[in-house]
Amino acid sequence: MNKSFCIFNSNASRICAIFVLLCSSFQLLAGDGGSPVETSVGEVVLLIGKVGVTHADGANSALQRGDSISIGDLVETSSGGHAHIKFVDGGVVSVRPESRLRIELYKYDVESPKKSAIRFSLEKGVVRSISGKATEAAHERYRLNTPIAALGVLGTDYVVRVSDSETWVAVYSGGVAVAPLSSSCLAAGLGVCEGATRLTKGMGNLVLLYRSGEQQAELKSLTSKLEGSGEQDPAQEPESQLMDSSDAPIEERLVERVGLDESIRQRELSGALRWGRWWSEPLVGDDISLSHGLARSGKEITVGDLRFGLFRDTTKSFRLMPKQGVYTFDLIRSFVYFTADSLVGSQPTQGRLDGGALEVDFLRDTFSTHLDLSHPEAGEVSLDVAGSIGRDGIFSAKNSNSRVAGALTEDGLEAGLLFERRVSNGVFKGISDWRR
User: Fold this and answer.
1) What's the CATH architecture for 6-16+272-435?
2) Is 195 helix (H, G, I), strand (E, B) or coil?
3) pLDDT tens-place string over residues 212-232
4) CB atoms within 10 A of CB 379
5) What value, to the nearest 5°, has the Cα angle with vertex 372 and ends 107 and 7?
6) What is the pTM of this model?
């Protein structure tokens, strides 16, 4: 039995977890003669699956994490593809699976932010956009076009899904305004078109729908969409469930509920997995683990360390586990703590998991993992591990400085991941919940 991680089942095989941290920059430089030279205006800071780009000159290539994005680029994701692009002003765009997004214009004027200008074209699929400094200073010069509508913002965080005949929009902060493209609302324009329908966060649980050929967008009640479903209103989600821009499970829950992206599953946890702690009192910041007695009720232990154990339903056969396919899991919640080596009896203090994703190949039972962790004393550090899943859905892996262990639910929809990363002055440890 390993002193750090204990696997309470002998059939451990292979699983994969990939974590990433958003960080990047872009710039628009002036070339000879004073005309603007289009250089990198953004960087791919998270990439899952296959994502390609067609450049303004027609050249095609597969995108990798860290690649630059330029004006004129068309980013296209596959059915399992997902990319985050971060811009120099701090704006972030999340391009969801089976989407096509073109960066038509991105100019951020550092000295005169009000002169900034941004225009995107979403040809199909789903994106989430979180405004940066350019949009905050010059929201009247921001535009996202769909095949049938023009979207302007008031400085905002929104998600939009488009098809040839419909445009759906939901807002998380700020507001948007949508109008049909027409002779008076040109795709080449910027900002809000005259007569646009507005949707703001303050209007409550509403989404905006525009259908091709109609004169005006329609506001629809999100609450009415949920009636009879037994689901919790996303406006009432606890703050611990709301993720930052590097990952957005609440985004995808809302998207599915209003029909914006049928391919994205609900991100609520079923309760099939529970984290239990051996200590009676939780560490500061730990709002995930339960007391050992509560966690084990009706469940059995799968993996654990000296502080936490992961408990799972005891009556599952794993017949519903996928037999093949590569699936991406999203981080739902996590707790990270750091213990310094410098002092005898050093007490754990709360750290951070700054972003991530989890990918599982059910055909090959393979995984790789990347975690970005941080702590005021230990700084920023990454964890990279590969391992395997057993037939019972339990897994573990380690390398010279890191180790992970965890378990899947019997349908392969959820996972719990326990992790540890040693650094020169101490050790990061933590627990996390995931859903695909």
Assistant:
1) Beta Barrel (2.40)
2) coil
3) 988 888 888 754 332 222 333
4) 10
5) 150
6) 0.49
